Amino acid sequence: MGKKNGTVKRIVGTLALPVIMYVLMMILCYANGKTYFGSIGMWKTLIVDIAVSVTCAYGIGIQFKNGRFDFSGGAIMLLAAIIAGNTAKNLGSNPVIFCVLCMVLCVGFSLLVGCLYVFGRLPIIIATIAMALLYESVTCLIFNGGGLNLVANMQLKIFSTFPTVLIPLIGAIVVYWWYSYKTVAGKQSAILANNQQSAVNIGVNEPKNVLITYLFGGIIFGFATMIYATTGQHEASFTSLATISELFTNILPVFVGLLVAGFCGDTIGTIVGSVTLCTMTFGLEAIFTDEMGSVVTLVITGIFILLVNVLSSKGKNVAAVFEHLFRPKRNREVGGVN
User: Fold this and answer.
1) E strand or H helix at 148
2) Which of 82, 232, 294, 314 has the highest count of CB atoms within 10 angstroms of its CB?
């Protein structure tokens, strides 16, 4: 019975946040006449948004879980997307060539960031910002600084349409799961995140861990780029660190995932976070129109993430207060305050 109750608790804890958000957005949308919320068409669009969010979040989160905040992820994806997309388009829009280029370029660019951090002996923030600036500058020099536009290219756009979008999405999930639970580097992540120096002192080979992590991160970014490159027009980065916005937007599901990770682990937790945030964004942009929708969504998302972080860090204290308030008076007198 106890095992069954534990399973039910984990399922409820995992699904509560996205289900509550979905029901709330549906009520708001229907109250404003947006009756297409919940339709098949909505889900086909939403799944693409979720796929972009999940794959990007995994690519950033794989470093975050090791205690390293990487600022180069957005620049890696933009540069790889421009090179792979334009090259594949010039070679007849071959999807296989496009996929291979996305994977090879993202792995190569990620490993270069890891090598600079390891062999340059620079702080992770300095190393990743430096590489982000380098990659962004390259986007302005190649293909006449024209960026990438695959909106009308139906041969390559299949990676951002349902159901083909599920291929890179599932690939990213499998790679992240394999890294987290089947590799030594993944199992060492919690130790490094808590205290890198202590981890090194007890025998963790940090340089090896960094390079392996950047290898897996590059593979995940490769899957993410397949979707990201075909979702719209991507301009070259003529403003320094313009790609940082991609970074901060797509790391939000990781923070939400931390709240539910105790029920389902961070692999599923990140998916839950992406589903929750994408559902909220879709609903709010349906209710509010044009620029107002984007502004309101940004503000409410910020408030929502703040609440999630407060609950994540103070959740046990809040639960203890409610347990004390609602516990029968007799039990409180006997047991005292926990």
Assistant:
1) strand 148-149
2) 82
Residue 108 has pLDDT above 50, yes or no: yes
More confidently predicted of 316 and 272:
272
Element (H, E) at 149: strand 148-149
Name the residue among 82, 70, 116 with its Cα closest to residue 238: 82
- Give whole-number Cα distances, 163 to 38, 63, 157, 297, in Å: 18, 29, 12, 27
- Name the phi and psi angles at 71, rounded to 5: -95, 0
Phi then psi dihedrals of residue 122, to 5 deg? -100, 155
Q: Copy the structure tokens of residue 335.
A: 């047991």
Give yes or no for a contact between 279 and 46, defined as CB atoms under 8 angstroms apart.
yes
Q: Are 117 and 128 in contact (CB under 8 A)?
A: yes
- Type of residue at 51: A
Q: Residue 93 contacts by C-beta under 8 Å, 6 or more apart in sequence?
A: 153, 155, 156
- Show the tokens assigned to 167: 């291929």
Residue 61: its pLDDT value, please? 87
234 — phi, psi (to 5°)?
-120, 115
What does the alpha-carbon distance between residue 111 and residue 161 come to, in Å, rounded to a whole number? 30
Instruction: Supply φ then ψ for residue 148, to 5 degrees.
Output: -150, 135
Three-class secondary structure of residue 252 per DSSP: helix
* Alpha carbon distances (Å) from 122 to 128, 191, 197: 9, 21, 15
Who's near 264: CB < 8 A, 6+ residues apart? 10, 13, 14, 272
Q: How many CA atoms lie within 13 A of 103 on its CB side?
A: 13
